[in-house]
Every structure is written in structure tokens, then in C-alpha cells.
Amino acid sequence: MTTETLKTDDGQLTIWFDGPVWDGHSKVATVGKCKFASAGAGTRLLQDAATLAHSEGATALIGPMEGDTWHAYRLISDRGERAAFLMEPSSADHDEAAFKAAGFEVVSSYFSASAPLSELPGPKPDDTEVFTVEAWDGTDPDKLFTQVYELSCAAFADNPFYKHIDLADFLAMYRPVVPLLKQDLILFARDRTGALVGFLFGIPNYAEGPAPKSVILKTYASSQKGAGHWLSYQFYVNAKALGFDTVIHALMHDDNLSAVRSGLNGADVFRRYALMGRNL
């Protein structure tokens, strides 16, 4: 992956010249790892990044994004008052203004919401013989994440801003979190042949300290109708049994907002995020 870092006395950023497909552009670059002392400093660096990306043949620039959506991306557009949670994107309050002044506009919006586990999981889904749901057995984390990788690539391939990454790069991202994992928060749905048709990845919110009371529903995907409902139901049951009192639905696309509001009793959207883009 070809990158270049721009630094000044009042900021820095990194450009990835081989970003994901976006809006029909032939070549997209991304900009991430942004650290700006002020909105003005950020604007100047972003304008320099746009000039450099264009000189390398890019026709669009998006960010903040560290090369692809597997890595850190998005800025905080509405911070709210809740403390940051584990693995949440971070940005300065002036970052959005810097991007906008440099000619960027919002191209995708996201949110995080929380709900009390006392009001979940709701009615139990209908029994099914099509698949079974099981928790991770706690062994062979590379095998675990290889299965997650394979289903993720298939499930997310048609998502906006998708870009394929190699298994080795995927494992390198997730191995550091293995000591933080709890088996009952990592769930699989398998069909009658044993093939994986869905997964859910949850993790305690250790940003609260060593004994957190909130749990993060980080990622889930399924290729079988009904698997997502069963996975989330079992996740809530297991999280309550482990003593958590709040669930955080992390970094969901705005298109899912109505589903969250109707499906979660007492859900509270506490943070919003944006991905910015511009033509070159």
C-alpha cells in the first residue's frame, strides 16, 4: 500500500493512494491519521493532500480513512456528552470544519446508540432447524478470525467503500484484542453442514476500566435469513448473564437508524460520525 505523510509545525496527515472504489471514480485516494492544531491548519494540509493525490492520478479523495474501512475511518460530527468507548474513532472538534473548508462534504453518516439490557432482548425468535447458534469455544483465535474474515469479505463486498484485504492483514488487526475477548460474546450461526452463515463480535467496553458495565456489539454479518435476529438475541441473553447493564450498538450506518429505533426499547443515539469526500 503506497502512502505518504505530510507534516507541518501545526499538523500532519497520511495519504493512501490506492483507496476503495467510490462513486464511479477510476482512482480514489484516502487521507487519515489527521492531527490538526486548528481548523485552519487542517484545511491547509488537506488542500495540499488533494493537490498531491491529484498529481498521482486520483480523481477523488475521501477521509478520514486509513486506507480502507477495515482500518480506522470517520470523524466525530456530533460528540454528545458520553465518554469514548473501546475502539471508537477519535477526532478533534475542529476536524469537520477543516475538511469542509478544504472542499469536502459529507458522503456517508453513522451513529452509535445505547440501550439498557434490562429492556432487552425482547421476544425470543422462532425456533429453527436451518441453523444453530453457538458461542466461541475460546480456542484457536486464528481459526476464529479466519472464519470471521471469510464471511466478512462475502457479506460486506457490496458495501460502499469496500476494499478487499488479505487474511494476514486482517489477522494482524485482531490478534492484539484476543486477551480482551469473552467467549460468550463471540457467536456463530452454522447451517446443518456446519458451514458458517453468520457471526456476531461483541466485546466489553474496557474504556470504562477493568470491570465495565457496558458491552459493545461491534460487528455482525449473516448470509442466512433470520441468523442476525438469533445472534443478537443470544448476545443480549449472554451479556445480561455476564452482568452487563448496557449495550452499545457501535458505528452503525444511518440507513439502519429506523430499524434500531423500532427494534430497541429505550435506545439512545449518543454520537454521530461522518465520512468526508471531494472530487479532484
TrEMBL record:
Domain of life of the organism encoding this protein: Bacteria
Record's protein name: N-acetyltransferase domain-containing protein
Record organism: Sulfitobacter undariae
